[in-house]
Every structure is written in C-alpha cells, then in structure tokens.
Amino acid sequence: MNYYLFIPLFLILILLIPIPILFKSSANFFKSEGIVVVYICGVKLKGLVVKVDLSGVRIYEDNKEIPQDDSNENEPIYLKKLLLQIKEKMRMKLLQINYNFGVGDAYYSSLIGGWINIVLLIILTRVKSEKPTASLLVCDNIAFNSKVFEGALMIKASITLFDLVYSLIYSVILMIYVKINKK
Fold first, then answer.
1. What one-character-per-residue DSSP string does 112-178 give?
2. I need a surface site. Which of 10, 35, 73, 131 has the fewest CB within 10 A?
3. Are strands 56-61 and 43-53 parallel, antiparallel or unpaired?
C-alpha cells in the first residue's frame, strides 16, 4: 500500500478543517469602559481593555497602555481589506447579545427595554439574511429600579486555513494594486 499518499491527504485535511474562533466583548456604558477577548481553538489569543475619557480612547493589555501611533499609512488600508475578506469567508455559528438596562423607573425601563429589543431584532434579521446558518440570540435583563446600562456580545465562528491564507494573499494583492494606481 502507498502510505506516502497520506502526507498530502493530511495536509489537505489540515487546510480544510475549520478553526473555531470565539469573540467576547463586554461594555459598561456609564463607566465608558469595555473588554474585548479573542479565543482561537479555546486558547486566549488577545485580551484588551478599552476606556474612553475626555483625552480619547485608551487601550490596555495586561494593565499596560498600548501607544497609539500612526506611523504606517498603508497598514490601515491593508487591515481594512484583510478584515473585509475574512468577514466574507468566516462562517458564523452563534451571535449572542446580552444587555442589562435600567433608568431607575420601572415603567420607563420596560418601555425603553422593549424598544432596544425591537432595534436588536431588526439588526439580527439583517445579520440572518447575510449569514442564514447562524443562530441568533438576544438576552435582556431589565433592572427596573436601578440605573445601569451594560452590554455583552459573543460571536462563535469558524474559518479554514485555506480561506485565511487566501484572504491574506488577496488583501496584499489589493493593497499593491491601490498603491500602483495612486502613483
């Protein structure tokens, strides 16, 4: 038997097996801060804390502020193209939105909470038309007698290595094309 044929088969299977990606974010809108965490295959890849104040947006990783520098002008163009390609290739499995809302009055809290649910369901129907295999979920908690506005978002998706490599190459080609047309 030709066992050496298992090597290309194994490589092809690695390229075509989907990689699970989990994206979690949480925000407290009254405190103007949030957390963003990305997991790949169950391993935490990146965890960031985002705080907004009068001086602007500050991003922290491991309690150290990440400096904001705009030294490379081609990097945002490349990242936009890459993220657009990855978004098209990614297969979304679950989109879950949780929120905790209250304005201190039970009547107005329930009224505004209903309107928030309507807006979220309209947005999720748009997402469902784009990604029909995704499971969509809205979980609400109306705090009737307290003032709170917190939200959380969880996205479970998958992408194959082939699609990821294709997106990288395609975005590099598009960036070179844009660079040539600027000259």
1. HHHHHHHHHHHHHHHHHHHSTT-EEEEEEEE-TTSEEEEEEEEEEEEEEHHHHHHHHHHHHHHHHHH
2. 73
3. antiparallel
Amino acid identity, position 173: I
Q: Are 91 and 19 in contact (CB under 8 A)?
A: no
Largest separation between any pair of C-alpha atoms in the chain: 76
pLDDT tens-digit readout, 125-154: 999 998 888 999 999 999 988 899 999 999
Rounded CA separation 101/98 (Å): 10
In the three-class reduction of DSSP (H, G, I as helix; E, B as strand; rest coil), residue 32 is classed as coil
CA dihedral 145, 146, 149, 154 (to 10 degrees): -70
Question: What does the angle CA 129 – CA 132 – CA 133 come to, to the nearest 5 degrees?
Answer: 160
Is the CA virtual torsion 32, 119, 85, 20 positive or negative? positive
φ and ψ at 15, to 5 degrees?
A: -70, -30
Length of the chain: 183
- In order of 9, 16, 30, 33, the CA distances from 50 in angstroms are 44, 35, 13, 6
- Contacts by residues 50-57 (CB-CB < 8 Å, ≥ 24 positions apart): none
* Cα distance between residue 25 and residue 18, in whole Å: 23
